[in-house]
Amino acid sequence: MTMNKLFYAPGACSIGIHVLLQEIGKPYEPVLLNLREGAQFKPEFTSLNAKSKVPTLQREDGSVLTEYPAIAFWLAATNPGSKLMPEGATAQARALELTDYAVSTMHMQGFSRMFRPTNFAPSEADGDAVKARGREIFAKGLAVMDKALEDQEYLVGSYSFADSALFYVSYWWAARLQQELPAQVAAHYARMNARPAVQRTLKAEGLA
Ligand SMILES: N[C@@H](CCC(=O)N[C@@H](CS)C(=O)NCC(=O)O)C(=O)O
């Protein structure tokens, strides 16, 4: 293969990785995986990623990378010209800390409860309580992110791979659920939307 291949679904968490690929600006191949039709469970895909998830990145050497924080870190580390990797171990650890919090807590604990309550409680009757707990977890996450942005425009000061993760959870909250973001996160979301790479990504995924 001559370029990285991104398996994505429009508007899914893979949109953040899509933004990073657009920021880097090197040619890549986007491959739409239709999650609603269950393409993630078909052998053509599970032979690449047995976890049945996007984002999935097949690299130029054919090997596959999964999990948002790992893909984001690797893209930033291997494209130093893009300046997506902060300088120094502390700032790099902070970027990973915030990326993991957005993905593992805000998305997977918060949003997953809102979108897929039955994954958390076997009884349909508990659905509303599970969704409410999801909103609570997500709101706490927004407060943490708001604080991280108190004195700076991007999560670790300068723009980094971590901002792509906050962008996708903000996008779900503001654009998909039409909910309000706290002030600093709203300003970050506006800054992200003003970036040409984000605009190109939304267009490429048919969301603009
Ligand atoms: N821990 C994974 C989460 C990925 C994930 O949950 N992806 C969702 C889309 S946002 C997915 O592929 N869902 C397909 C399914 O659940 O069937 C990561 O960090 O990449």
Order of helices and strands: EHEHEEHHHHHH
End-to-end distance, in Å?
Answer: 30 Å
- Bound small-molecule species: glutathione
Question: Low-confidence segments, ≥5 residues, pLDDT <50?
Answer: none
Descriptive notes:
The structure is a single chain. By secondary structure, this protein is of the alpha+beta class. The chain has 2 domains: 4-83, Glutaredoxin; 89-195, Glutathione S-transferase Yfyf (Class Pi), Chain A, domain 2 (Up-down Bundle). 53% of the residues lie in helices and 8% in strands. The chain contains 8 helices and 4 strands. It has helices at residues 14-24, 43-46, 68-78, 89-115, 127-148, 162-176, 183-194, 196-204, and strands at residues 4-8, 28-32, 56-58, 64-66. The protein has a 4-stranded mixed β-sheet, with helices on one face. β3 (56-58) and β4 (64-66) form a beta hairpin. α1 (14-24) crosses α6 and α4 (89-115) runs parallel beside α6 (162-176). The longest helix is centred in the middle third of the chain and has 27 residues, at 89-115. It starts with a strand and ends with a helix. The structure holds glutathione.
